[in-house]
Amino acid sequence: MPHVSLNDLVVGVRSGDRLTSFPTDTVPALASHPDRADLIFAAKQRSLDKPLILMAATIDDLWEYVVGSLEERAVWEQTAKRYLPGALTLVLPASDRVPSALNPTDPTTIGVRVPNHALARAILTQTGPLATTSANRSGEPPLQTMNEIEAQFPDVLTLEPTEMIALQAATLTQPQSPSGVPSTVVRWTGAGWNVLRQGAITLEDTV
Question: Which residue range forms the structural domain that includes residue 144?
Answer without folding.
Answer: 3-197
